[in-house]
Amino acid sequence: MRNEMMYRPIINEDILNYLRTEQKQLTGKLGDLEAVAHENGVPVIPHETVVFLQFLLKQKQPKNVLEIGTAIGFSASLMAETIGKDTHITTIDRFPVMIEKAKKNFAALDLTDQVTLLEGDAADLLSTLEGPYDFIFMDSAKSKYITFLPECLRVLADDGILMVDDIFQAGTVLQSIEEIPRKNRAIHRHLNEFLAEVTKSPELTSTLLPLGDGVALISKNK
């Protein structure tokens, strides 16, 4: 379960520690879920990304949200609690173990009416969705980001935001592929394809942020 990329900071460790410990902490059951996830090495978004996501959602106030990569349900729960009852979240995951844990966490947080969990591969399910979604959060298999991007943009509202997590592969994404362990080279190639597309496409506006293992914010040009 432990994700080594969570423990290889891409910024100064003192700054990273400050961002994770000195910004406002979560409370209640959601805070407990975050703490347990970190204690057990479960790959949930780090706290600096939590704080940024809360801020962004409070400004955007999306009504219809899509998440790709439910895991234990932490991010979906965070979004639901941040935005409130006026929003609905659709989240996708294909791993039975994670699906079971996410369902338990949604029930414990009283979010079962607000969150719809779709079970299956996003490669199959995305094409069945109609949208539009005001906000999309993608935190799934990194090698699939470039594959999922067209469908995400299809269902993204004209004024919507696509937020993509973990784009820098622990700071190694710009290294030559010869420096990358063979087991990670497919991820390396596809992440570079994804970054090239979202930063160079004339149809998109994007910004990249050094939060956690890197975050991309993407919108469609009208």
UniProtKB/TrEMBL annotation:
CDD domains: AdoMet_MTases (cd02440). GO terms for molecular function: O-methyltransferase activity; S-adenosylmethionine-dependent methyltransferase activity; tRNA (uridine) methyltransferase activity. It catalyses: 5-hydroxyuridine(34) in tRNA + S-adenosyl-L-methionine = 5-methoxyuridine(34) in tRNA + S-adenosyl-L-homocysteine + H(+). It comes from the Bacteria. Transmembrane segments: none annotated. S-adenosyl-L-methionine binds at residues 45, 75, 93, 121-122, 139. Keywords: Methyltransferase, S-adenosyl-L-methionine, Transferase, tRNA processing. InterPro entries: Cation-dep_OMT, SAM-dependent_MTases_sf, SAM_O-MeTrfase, TrmR_methyltr. Its EC number is 2.1.1.-. Signal peptide: none annotated. It is an enzyme of class 2 (transferase). GO terms for biological process: tRNA methylation. Gene3D superfamilies: Vaccinia Virus protein VP39 (3.40.50.150). Coiled coil: none annotated. It holds the Pfam family Methyltransf_3. Belongs to the class I-like SAM-binding methyltransferase superfamily. Cation-dependent O-methyltransferase family. Catalyzes the methylation of 5-hydroxyuridine (ho5U) to form 5-methoxyuridine (mo5U) at position 34 in tRNAs. Homodimer. HAMAP family: TrmR_methyltr. This is tRNA 5-hydroxyuridine methyltransferase. It comes from Enterococcus hermanniensis. The lineage of its organism: Bacteria, Bacillati, Bacillota, Bacilli, Lactobacillales. The gene is trmR.
